[in-house]
Write a structure and sequence with these properties.
Layout: E1 4-8, E2 11-15, E3 19-25, E4 31-39, E5 44-52, E6 58-70, E7 76-89, E8 95-100
Length: 111
């Protein structure tokens, strides 16, 4: 069954565990950009926070399992096991870079 979608801003947005939408609006409420971060295959992506830097770049934080890209492009974040990621988007929504890391297989608390 395909994921449910909703029309908003510039087009349909997915509602599924494998995708998340990031949008920016100007002072009048008009969309500046809408980017969709989609995981491939059985992967998952969750955006947990989006911030705006003084230079008008957006900072996106979340978790990724598998591989994910913005709007199906070559800008790929990947991890084998639900790892955190950070990505930077320019003022117009262009992907400026990002990183993801794989968490340790196990951790112990020695306190």
């Amino acid at each position: 069954m395909p994921p449910a979608t909703s029309t908003w801003g510039r087009g349909p947005l997915p509602f599924a565990l494998n995708a998340a939408a990031i949008a920016r609006f100007d002072a009048t409420g008009a969309p500046t950009f809408v980017r969709v971060l989609t995981a491939t295959g059985a992967g998952q992506v969750r955006v947990k926070a989006v911030g705006l830097a003084q230079d008008q770049r957006s900072i996106v934080l979340g978790f990724v399992q598998g591989s994910a890209s913005f709007d199906g492009g070559s800008d790929v974040l990947s991890s084998s096991a639900g790892a955190p990621f950070i990505a930077r988007l320019g003022p117009s929504g262009e992907y400026l870079g990002g990183a993801s890391s794989t968490p340790p297989a196990s951790s112990t608390n020695s306190r």
